[in-house]
Write a structure and sequence with these properties.
The complex is a heterodimer of chains A (about 140) and B (about 300). Chain A has about 140 residues and is mostly helical. Chain A is built from five helices and three strands. Chain B is an alpha/beta fold and about 300 residues long. The longest helix of chain B has 15 residues. The radius of gyration of chain B is 22 Å and the shape is elongated. Classes of the chains: A mainly alpha (about 140), B alpha/beta (about 300).
Chain lengths: ~140, ~300
């Protein structure tokens, strides 16, 4: 698993890991049942604190994206979309609000902001096809 | 078992008139990597020496691995490895001789670890210590500390003189062999980017006093630098406001929590909030330590801040 971490940024390292794993899963680079490297291996490879990696994995497990088998490693969950729709929307709303606020401050037209999000969705689909993912 | 590897309670160390350590209370959790930060002369080395029984506290108390400093010094030393700031060992001895000299003092000493780390750090084993470069001296000190298989490792500038490969190897050892194995590491370093990578807790001291002690992730999630423009804005620290700086018509506030609420409150006082941004460790260090200088100009006669009610 390829992670790009920037420890000096204001974003906590555990959040950087969470966001990248989420991105890999959303883009299909990681599919249901795929194994993730152990906390110890990620920490050693990235030269970061194992507690930080463990925290990211725990949060991803809580969010239903990963599942861990006691003593047997961590895997991408079979059904990472298992949350209620209302809960999914509740989690996404802050990001939608941020895009709306930033876009408006930059004086973009509402349609231009919507187009931007659509382009990002399309690029995810392209990435999904490129890895030949059949899980979704 | 005590969940803290190190706990100090109002530790004081004075050298004639200088209060090097001034009522310092820190808590280092077991199994963590604690970045112990501060400027030169802030009191870091004095604190470490007291923890190891190498200096006697003027006042206050501390426990190391649940044992009281001073009273249980030998037991503490058996389970604690220490790399000193000066990296000074017997100059005439080679690393191989230093290993033979040192191993008997430590019950958990591992010759396998000596071989492993000598290889990984590329330590010159057969040249007298005095003839080695600073980087190679540091490697010998690290080798002797790591071979002790200690429960607690106290590192004072552990990467001085190391080349980038050596620094990277050191970080890997801390991540994999120390933190990954549940050992506790207290690390003092000016290399903030390295600390930021490997530490899960940080303590920042200045003039012997603790300015900040927190989980690094919490600092990143909650600490914010707020930049506001306007006149008559509050310029007072206190509560969640750790520093307040003027820069022309702009004012910069470092807050440790509830940044959005404080920004909103500034807004009701007529300020224009230009930015609420997260900070890296280096920025926090500079904001906090620079602020503690005795004569900050421009603070006199300012309107005091209204009490900021935290939510």
């Amino acid at each position: 698993m390829l992670l790009h971490l920037n420890p000096a940024s204001g974003v906590p390292i555990y959040l950087q890991i969470e966001n990248q794993v989420k991105h890999y899963v959303a883009a299909g680079a990681l599919g249901p049942g795929d194994a993730l490297p152990s906390v110890r291996k990620v920490a050693a490879d990235m030269r970061i604190n194992p507690n930080t990696v463990a925290r990211a994995y725990q949060n991803l497990e809580r969010d239903g994206i990963l599942r861990s088998v006691p003593g047997g490693g961590t895997y991408v969950a079979e059904n990472p979309g298992g949350l209620l729709k209302s809960e999914k929307i509740r989690r996404l709303r802050p990001y939608a609000r941020q895009i709306a606020v930033e876009g408006t401050q930059l004086r973009l037209e509402p349609q231009e902001i919507v187009n931007l999000v659509e382009q990002e969705l399309e690029s995810l689909e392209v990435a999904d096809e490129r890895v030949g993912n059949s899980h979704r | 078992m005590n969940e803290l590897a190190i706990h100090t309670d109002k530790l004081v160390k004075t050298y004639s008139k200088l209060r090097a350590v001034d009522e310092l209370s820190i808590n280092v959790p077991r199994g963590g990597v604690y970045g112990f930060l501060g400027r030169n002369g802030a009191g870091k080395t004095s604190t470490m020496r007291m923890l190891l029984g190498l200096a006697r506290p003027t006042a206050g108390s501390a426990t190391v691995l649940g044992m009281s400093i001073g009273r249980e010094q030998v037991a503490i030393l058996e389970r604690t490895a220490y790399v000193t700031e000066g990296k000074v060992l017997y100059g005439g001895m080679t690393a191989r001789e230093l290993v033979r000299f040192t191993r008997g003092f430590y019950p958990n000493w591992s010759d396998d670890a000596v071989a492993r780390y000598a290889r990984r750090f590329d330590v010159p084993m057969d040249r007298p210590f005095a003839q080695l470069s600073l980087g190679n001296r540091t490697k010998v000190c690290l080798l002797l500390a790591l071979a002790q298989q200690a429960d607690l490792l106290i590192f004072d500038e552990p990467t001085s003189g190391l080349d980038p490969v050596g620094v990277d190897e050191f970080q890997r050892v801390v991540a994999e062999d120390l933190a990954g194995d549940g050992r506790t590491v207290l690390i003092s370093s000016h290399q903030l980017a390295d600390v930021e990578r490997i530490a899960d807790w940080v303590g920042l001291i200045d003039n012997g006093r603790l300015l900040l002690e927190a989980r690094l992730d919490d600092i990143k999630s909650q600490y914010r630098l707020i930049t506001a423009a306007g006149t008559g804005l509050p310029q007072r620290k206190g509560g969640d406001i750790l520093s307040a700086n003027s820069d022309g018509n702009f004012r910069k506030y470092l807050v440790r929590a509830n940044a959005e609420a404080f920004a909103a409150e500034l807004g009701t006082q007529g300020a224009t909030i230009t930015e609420v941004s997260p900070l890296g460790l280096r920025e926090i260090f500079l904001e906090l330590v620079r602020k503690e200088e005795p004569c900050t100009s421009g603070n006199a006669g300012e309107i005091p801040a209204p009490a900021f009610s935290s939510i």
